[in-house]
Fold each of these.
Amino acid sequence: MTATDTYLLLRAFCDELARAGVAHVATSPGSRSTPLVLSLVREPRLRAWSHVDERSAAFFALGVAKATGLPSAIVCTSGTAAANYLPAVIEAHEARVPLIVLTADRPPELRDNGAGQTIDQLKLYGSAVKWFVEVGSHEWSRERERWIRTLASRAVLTALEGRPGPVHLNFPLREPLVLDAPLPAAAGGRPDGAPWVSSTPPAGNPPAATLSGTRRGVIVAGREERGAWRGVGALAEGLGWPVLADPLSGARRGAAAIAHYDALLRDEAWGAAHAPEVVLRVGDLPTSKSLRTWLAGLDAEQIAVDPEGAWQDPAGVVSRRLDNLPVRAGAADPDWLYAWRAADRVVVEALEAAVGADLTEPRVAVELGARLPSAATLVVASSMPVRDVETFFPLRPDPPRVLSNRGANGIDGTVSTAFGVAATATPEERTVLLIGDVALAHDIGGLLAARRLSLDLTIVLLNNDGGGIFHFLPVAGETDAFEQHVATPHGLDFAHAAALYGCDHERVEDLGSFRTALDAALATPGASIVEVPTERVANVEAHRRAWEAVRAALSAA
Amino acid sequence: MTATDTYLLLRAFCDELARAGVAHVATSPGSRSTPLVLSLVREPRLRAWSHVDERSAAFFALGVAKATGLPSAIVCTSGTAAANYLPAVIEAHEARVPLIVLTADRPPELRDNGAGQTIDQLKLYGSAVKWFVEVGSHEWSRERERWIRTLASRAVLTALEGRPGPVHLNFPLREPLVLDAPLPAAAGGRPDGAPWVSSTPPAGNPPAATLSGTRRGVIVAGREERGAWRGVGALAEGLGWPVLADPLSGARRGAAAIAHYDALLRDEAWGAAHAPEVVLRVGDLPTSKSLRTWLAGLDAEQIAVDPEGAWQDPAGVVSRRLDNLPVRAGAADPDWLYAWRAADRVVVEALEAAVGADLTEPRVAVELGARLPSAATLVVASSMPVRDVETFFPLRPDPPRVLSNRGANGIDGTVSTAFGVAATATPEERTVLLIGDVALAHDIGGLLAARRLSLDLTIVLLNNDGGGIFHFLPVAGETDAFEQHVATPHGLDFAHAAALYGCDHERVEDLGSFRTALDAALATPGASIVEVPTERVANVEAHRRAWEAVRAALSAA
């Protein structure tokens, strides 16, 4: 077996990845991975993005795949390099994002015996991947090329079909790792650029169910990155049902959408008075605790549209699962949707007054919802920003797309994910990241993409010097350990981070400055940080004031 | 089951960890982990170190365990937090470092059904841990307290015994997560602070083997962090054998130690002329490629002292394994050791002349070897620094301890490991990290320990703006992809990183400034970066000149 054998087969493999729709690969440096990396970089239909940290590379590729709906690839060398992929691989599994994980390995004779940079990579990601293949090493033959073309086709189809997710192919590679002669011309795959194996999805959509005799229903629309459920708006308008629309669903728009269900349902009396007969759930279950509590307590038929088998039902209240949106049925109760819409408008006004014009965390969420161009994508970090966006993002006819790593809800890799989204955007489709200081500190190395990859990203940083969300929880009272081990203040001056990574940076203290800085950042190429200093305890008070104002307004209405 | 049940059992668990010798725990923020974190922090015999990034936390704890030889603990919340531990867990497995991994989890009723921040944590680390336990949730009882005390004892003993390594305990925790009443006084464990279960190691050492009739042997001493093989010096002197001593063995000292085997054995003729009849291998196989090649080609009996079952023998040349150092045997050939020692001295002089007084990467390794106080610990990063230290570190009677993450040879987590080592040091025992720019960029977030944990660490940064080691490999000729995807230059000005994390920083351009800056850094509390700018291509030339000079000197001698 020669390097030529390896490179011939890898060239065919990469050709098939491209034919199957893979368009981006995130690389990381290493030696053992040389044949894989060179073959990927030399495939002209793949855009190769270099990352020093494999954890960042994997979250970057996750962002690419979330933004495009198509699998992206990651490639790393042997050893703990591959272990650094695990957080993003798990997020891809939980969020059902297709990802092609390619790891270089030492061959069997160099494993577990003191050869350098060698770990047990077989089934390294355990239950988090849909498919694992130990690729082996091979002499080129016509038969073997067919096999590896099939392997690439199958990897992409497996990542996409059914419940999407990551697949892992492990490539043992032997020295020599570079070619000593030019590679012969490519033998080629199927004619006309077709993939080696194509797959026909089931003919048409699954049959639509009928909901009969129901007059009062609600649709709960949660995270769905490919926008599959944007059609719920039309369905809801036909049914006369409200859509409680998480911004992550893409459905917070149109005449039936309810934006402020989180605030509304914090008023238990209002929630009890507006109990539906049926709940239709599409996408992931939204984060809102008031919504989750309300759903768990309803005496209603709950139906999940769940073609990917996500089983988003911790309360165990769903009694029926569907593969597709049901067709309309039953006569609408005109007062029902009207009552929800009227209440939502009451909340909008109460929130607007309560949030006020100070530059608080709720205000930033409102502003982004109102000001971001329709063509923008907003990436939202866990834990507080995604909640603030859910609570405060307004209803508008043309909302920007909102993405978030809400499979496992980690704060890790958020910056890198946002850069991955940015890698898929045109100059008009600006990418904006809303992130807190702890998540930024966690993935600070992700900012290296700003220096190395020339991508456009506007980072809106809410800096309250610690984990603001924990102040909402009972643990905040455990004062012997809370600050140091839970809130974890760090005192970082992110202006230095911006200087390190070549980002613009501006700290803004009032609403006017924020608007000016945000608009300027959106109009400027490259990466920039618009930093909003806030205060953790005051932030809890601002939220509680807002909820109290909503409750008072609903009582008065 | 109440929070009191949970906290009573966790208090007993933490009490047992401390009784069994665990002294340090690295925490990370989260909500689900609250009972675990509070119980650990409240155990007065544990020092709790807070980290924002779980990957850093795990490498920090690895550093603590490497430096002390005792297990350290890590604790994180549910979700991808736990996935970020994997790189350090694998390094601990490969390097045989005891580590107690404590992960909080959601209970079974909140798994895989849309509850937040929940992933499949069962056997998350696969084959990298020695023991996995799903701890479950329990009402307190006398019997259950005995069980959990046994569990803690057993976790520590399992991590330490036989082949040391990590163990993983997964704790499903239910709300409420904080106590609503003070905890009753502790029931207590065994009298006199004894652990619940103690374990008697096998009586005495395993019987020592006898090597009969051998006159020409060499001892190869590789990485062994607990200094178990420092006794090889006396054995070697008695046998009249040279010790080819990796600095990571602690054995590069004394009358039989050979420091410059890497340079010596690059001269194949010299190596062939000095082939031994027997090779005794202790510790891990050193990194040196010339040594590995020489060992693989020898027609000699090769014996591995390998009580931990590490099987460090990729060439498959070991024919005998021992659990303990053999006793001396046979009459020494006085010329044999003399020839090695004389050659080593020739190399010292040739290297000193070839390395010269310019501030190159080899010169920095020489300087650290000569100047670091005996009480210091030097942590060395992969990939070039560990090789430079192996090649250039001088022989001296009182060398500093040298540690390196050479289980899986990753560059990840190196900064955090060094801070973990620093956490175990007294003010006199300064910790120094020798690291390249790519490894520093990879674990840049590890510098947050400088700001938050008040530890003393001197970082000597070799900054050649990319992965210098790759220039030694054939891939350097693949110019279409080499710079962007393999060398990965980043242009980082680490002065900004120092400002971000509150480290001192000095860039030095000549040897005198380096010495002054190093001495100043060693005398100053806190963290500092002494940055040495170098150049990747010039670095290859400097190394090749040094090896050529050694070859010429050996020919002339």
Amino acid sequence: MTDTSLIPFFSPKGVAIIGASLDPTKLGFGLSRNLVQSNYRGAIHFVNIKGGNLLGHPVHTSIMEVPEPVDLAVLLIPAEAIPQALQDCGRRGINAAIIASGGFRETGSEGAALESKCLEIAQKYRIRLLGPNCIGLIDTHLPLDTTFLSPPGPTPGDVAFISHSGAICAAVIDWARGQGFGLSRLVSLGNQVDINETDMLAQVAADPYTKVLTLYMEGVSNGRRFVEKAQEVTRSKPVIALKVGRFEGGKRAAASHTGALAGEESAYNAAFRRAGVIRAETSEELFEWARALAWCPLPKGRNVAVLTNSGGPGVTAADALESLGLRMASFQPSTQTALRALLPPAASADNPVDMLAAATPQQYANCLRILLADPGVDSVMVILPPPPMSTAGGTAKTMIPVIYTADKPVVVALMGERLIQEAVEHFRAARVPEYRFPEQAAAALAILTQRAEMLASGEKADESTKVQISQSQIDKVSSILDSITTVRKNNFLPTETVQALLDTYGIPTLPLALGKSPTEAADLAHQMGFPVALKLASNDITHKSDIGGVILHLQTPEEVQNGYNRIMRNAREAHPGAESNGVYIQHMLPEGQEVIIGTVQDSQFGSLLMFGSGGIEVEGLKDIAFSLAPLPKDEAEWMLNNTWAGKKLAGYRNIPPGDREAVVDVILRLAHLAADFPQLAEIEINPLLVFPIGQGVCALDVRAKLSNG
Amino acid sequence: MTDTSLIPFFSPKGVAIIGASLDPTKLGFGLSRNLVQSNYRGAIHFVNIKGGNLLGHPVHTSIMEVPEPVDLAVLLIPAEAIPQALQDCGRRGINAAIIASGGFRETGSEGAALESKCLEIAQKYRIRLLGPNCIGLIDTHLPLDTTFLSPPGPTPGDVAFISHSGAICAAVIDWARGQGFGLSRLVSLGNQVDINETDMLAQVAADPYTKVLTLYMEGVSNGRRFVEKAQEVTRSKPVIALKVGRFEGGKRAAASHTGALAGEESAYNAAFRRAGVIRAETSEELFEWARALAWCPLPKGRNVAVLTNSGGPGVTAADALESLGLRMASFQPSTQTALRALLPPAASADNPVDMLAAATPQQYANCLRILLADPGVDSVMVILPPPPMSTAGGTAKTMIPVIYTADKPVVVALMGERLIQEAVEHFRAARVPEYRFPEQAAAALAILTQRAEMLASGEKADESTKVQISQSQIDKVSSILDSITTVRKNNFLPTETVQALLDTYGIPTLPLALGKSPTEAADLAHQMGFPVALKLASNDITHKSDIGGVILHLQTPEEVQNGYNRIMRNAREAHPGAESNGVYIQHMLPEGQEVIIGTVQDSQFGSLLMFGSGGIEVEGLKDIAFSLAPLPKDEAEWMLNNTWAGKKLAGYRNIPPGDREAVVDVILRLAHLAADFPQLAEIEINPLLVFPIGQGVCALDVRAKLSNG
């Protein structure tokens, strides 16, 4: 699972610092100092053309003079000198290098050229590169510190941090220290000329000391590879990502509703969901959640008990828990009896359990033990404002043994600041997640539950949930696409072609006849059977209903002839130069629910499938969900469960239940088609008409667009 | 504006503590100690039946013995003894009392009876009561501390806190001290037997030291009075409320879509919006926002400049700002030139301004000065991770004079923990809001902008924006309602009556004829002109389209006769016992957009008006907004601007623009009707058909329900 070429980064036998400096004001000194002070146990070598002696080690004037063992080089010399130094490393047999220096791609085209040259040399000598323009990496357990940051570095811990930003690394180390949690590994990726976030993921996850991985991401290098690797990692260890830059994502040219709605954020959300990566919205959440995941057992369900010594914070906690989809646990009668025996009569033995302001440390501990023993309780939030009659520190100390021995998660809302400092320190030392407010504690429990449910759904997803598409179906679509000779200026395929593609993949469409004159249209309608619908046949005009290009419910040949003329007139008025081939005639179908199913090709993550409320108001109602395509059945179910269009398929008021299974089937098939043929830049069925249960669906209006070139 | 009877609470000439204790382990000692240590400058009197001497003051054995001046009593004796003590206070001429003791309503019915007795005595002697079961109050500037909380109390500051929870008060005092901001006044309301949150609002706002009011609310005593008083206060000082207990709100019986959707939270949101109260979602936001509002000038617009020394946090900041509706400012060319002259070539002089990691304190200060001078910049966020080459403290000190002299708000994202402590202290001392993460700093700027925009909209709302309803219209509705003699079991009014009510208030409805047999229906349809719609006339069956009680587009007398029979059969099958009076016949209208407008009577806030996407999927789409009724025109505009139904009135794709003005008019009129006649428990127009601009609207389907009793 891990890439062996990356091993020297995390267990080097010897490290050489090229650019070590005797001047304490230089970064090259800081780097040398950190390596020595980190207590790294391998060989330490300093290289500087000036020579000398530094921190008890000789300074070699060239990497070529450095004695064995040395398998990792850290370069902190001017950018122009890096290619030569890399070449020396290669000749010296070093296969791993960290380029800490800046002055590369981030400075413009000259720097970019220099960066490419470095990569070329590295590839020639099979050197893996971290950076350039990065802070380096830290492993607190090995230990190893190849950064030049001011001490103190992070304390050893169980949260790993991988970052696209070096500045964030410095802030995180300092912040983690203040927040009382340690780091296991920290990797600053810099310009990623070689090693990127995906490469590091499995490598860092392989560390036995790392219990949770956190990512600060500004993008991905290869979307699908990231999803694949992250999926492997999240099966064993939780990954939380803060993805920034969401408002910078370029807008797509909107050829379809799906295309207009598929922003970069939809793609990232779909990718994180598929990969099992938890997405944090703020920097604070990233680490608040990481602490809970690193330190707590996972809950078996959503039922939370709240233990408090005052009413107000208990209500706040209940609000926060329920808004996050958790439930206030109902207690067994024996639990209530046991609580009442311990508490004064005015206390509440219901959830939230309010022990009243005079609650003693012993009451906190005993009530907590009782709550943890209730089989209807999956997790507990303890709320501890500065107690008026005792100390928060004493209360913490008394509760900690109970929390230690529990197999259910306990988080603490430790409210206040100065009066709770001793309690803060006790809880942190005992690895009990504590937060200043009930809302944060509730969010931590919600994340633990999300992780537990993700692992559970992964276990049962083994059954085959994929739609079967045969080779002959694939071949047929290939030949249809190959036979397209004339590519229109807007790349849209003729409706008949789109219908043929969908038919081939088992998606029901409505037979369609092309009438090239009023009388031909009327004849075709007569053969088809009334009532019929007419639609303009034009490859130049996309949103046909917008210009009066669609007429429904025509009952007679005369109405069809008049309708034909009206559509042609509307088209000419709206788009004088546009080509019109006549009108399509379709039999009018019975009523059904209308949904939209569409696909786009995302530049980062490949095929995406969208499902939601169909019709023309798609972009206004925004009742939609996205998944990566192809997708397993449970993701199709997720999309249905998370949109009103999907929920409504169960029936609502006088809308009869729709054929939900048939909708899921179309989702899976269309996703397959988009994934099999990425040259189909966009495909959209809007609406897909959904008939009552057992009566199937019909793709009423379809469109598809080829990618450019 | 303020209630003179509350003056003794905040400027007493003399305070008597009834229940002062010589025993340092008792709350009665803590209370005495706090009063003395608070440096309260008026007369201090201690009362305890045992007498003695306490903290240099004699202890009187009865309140009757206490010498003048004394105008505020704080009672901390057993609950049973309170009525007698209150009576003594009354006889002594004391008109203000704080009952700190518990043992009242919160303990059950006996306690509630005791509480009522206290109120009775207080009313007899004209004593205003704070509590019982409260922590008391603090004024840090007078100064005065009537709480028994462990020292230290809050430092003097400019944020007031009014709370329904005593425990939260203790936590807030401690937390504020740790977060480095002071409090002006703190009021714990307890059981609110007399004085409630609304009473205290104006009283606390009148304090010249208070710049922002924060509220921890578990409910309101009188919704409309709260809105009215809060509206007065927010004109001069910002009010931020944390309202908890949102998931406890009882569900209404859902007689209409509006009733089903109007939860307690919709009412609170509408009330806060009307009152200009900013609603915080978490305890943390409450005080993070309060600091910004207390310490910063308000921005003139939404354009924010971000100043940073690293890319990552700058991107995070831009994300957060844009997601909150703020804009990244575009700089004038002269600003960019000035920045470039100060910064290295690789730095970014665009927004976010990235000075690179080596940025010096002087560069921070100078760039900040340049940004503040740009007329296109309304506010600035400075991002300061621990700088590698200088100290955060030094940078803070250099920037503070620039921030001081600016008339634009500057907030700081001071990232890290231990390395930034000195900077934290500098900023706090200078009253510059600092946060650990860019997201929180962005939220603070958004709140400042919201406050500025609220004040600006208040200024221009002077023009008359109310709909005119004459006395004769009101009288006519009164007489219609008075003439209703038979109240049906479900309290629904006959459709003709509802139409008459709406017509009277100037809301267009569709003429409706009642046919009691198939032939009568056909005749009426013929007179009205085809096509027509039929609808079941029944007071027992509410959702008529659900049971096949509505048929549209009937073209001939025969179709009407068949339709009549079909509706009757459907009604009999669905509700065998239900009464049916025949069918209503309406002329079919041209197509239009469909919206819903409804009202309900909220038990806390009175009449509420709902606007949104109409049809039968109202509850599924939840595209709705609520306002208090009656409402000014700008609130109607707000509802339209914040729903898809409202936005769509401007036209969308092939949906032509609708008559927006006519919709606003109906909103104002229906709100007026609901407010004028609160006995109309629910009124609903669904759909209101909206024709193209200038062609008006028509209330197609209407219902109204009387309140019980």
